């Protein structure tokens, strides 16, 4: 039986999604992590100290009211941290020799914080993004309306596209819209 012949609607594709299938989507998981590495939702992450502390790895003392900021956007592009290909989109950097996803230290990949402040929703965010991505990519193809126009980003408290991203969306071959 050819599974793709049985999928004629988005609902059919969605019905095939299972926990086991999601767990096996190592490359998709790696692709999502790589996107987040290069384009973290929070490009700048400031912290305000509520009491005096010796908190930094170098032993630096911080005082109550001090603001310390780190830049996940810049850190995701640092050759010192990610290697000579730091600017390249390379999902394979997240895969082990068996093609299985392997996470990096949260102190290296800071998008979900680290230590006692690690994001409780990290796994849920990955799961939801994998479901959403698998359905969209499995059921549709996407094409930029102007392939020569390079999308630009605007950095505010979070990273955003600067203006619209005009795309064409086409159902994949053999797929039709559910009523």
TrEMBL record:
Binding site residues for heme: 119
InterPro entries, per database record: Cyt_P450, Cyt_P450_E_grp-IV, Cyt_P450_sf
Keyword Oxidoreductase listed: yes
Recorded GO MF terms: heme binding; iron ion binding; monooxygenase activity; oxidoreductase activity, acting on paired donors, with incorporation or reduction of molecular oxygen
Superkingdom as given in the UniProt entry: Eukaryota
SUPFAM superfamilies: Cytochrome P450 (SSF48264)
This protein's record includes keyword Heme: yes
Pfam families: p450
Keywords of the record: Heme, Iron, Metal-binding, Oxidoreductase
Gene3D superfamilies: Cytochrome P450 (1.10.630.10)
Known cofactor(s): heme
Homology family: Belongs to the cytochrome P450 family.
Name assigned to this protein: Cytochrome P450
Lineage, top ranks: Eukaryota, Viridiplantae, Streptophyta, Embryophyta, Tracheophyta
